[in-house]
Amino acid sequence: SCTVFKLYALLATAEQAAALSKRYREGGMGYGEAKEALFELLQELLTPMRERFTAVYEDTERLEKILSRGAERAREIASK
After folding, report:
1. How far apart are CA 8 and CA 17, in angstroms?
2. In degrees, to the nearest 5, what angle opens at C-alpha 14 toward C-alphas 27 and 49?
3. Could you count the other beta carbons within 10 Å of the beta carbon of residue 29?
4. Exposed, middle or buried, 6 (CB in 10 Å: 0-12/13-18/19+)?
5. Half-sphere exposure of 26 (CA within 13 A, CB side)
6. Handedness of CA 51, 57, 59, 61 (dihedral sign)
7. pTM of this prediction?
8. CA 20 to CA 33: how far, in whole Å?
9. Cα–Cα dist 62/42, whole Å
10. Nearest to 11 by CA among 58, 43, 49, 56
11. Which of 30, 57, 69, 79 has a C-alpha 20 to 30 A away from that of 38?
């Protein structure tokens, strides 16, 4: 019934979720530690996306090309 664990289980592999569930059920693991595990998992999952975003954002020429292509597609859709 723990919301933190439910979120963790949605994002984790089956093995990771089972391991956290086992630790939770055995006792000795507090809510704060579960929140920390969720935070670490989110960091692991989001870091590659954050790095890609930063790389694109810092490359203004590439960013302008991406935005121009998106604008072209939007105009085509909007004109219909």
Report:
1. 7
2. 110
3. 14
4. exposed
5. 8
6. positive
7. 0.69
8. 10
9. 27
10. 43
11. 57
Task: Give pLDDT tens digits for 63-77.
Answer: 999 999 999 999 999
17, two tokens: 């979720």
Sequence-ordered list of residues with C-beta below 8 angstroms from that of 13, at least 6 positions apart, any chain? none
**DSSP, res 80:** -
Burial 33-65 (b: 16+ CB within 10 A, else e): ebeebbeebeeeeeeeeeeeeeeeeeeeeeeee
Predicted confidence (pLDDT) per residue in 23-63, tens digit? 888 887 888 898 999 999 999 999 999 999 999 999 999 99
Q: Per this entry, what is the length of the chain?
A: 80
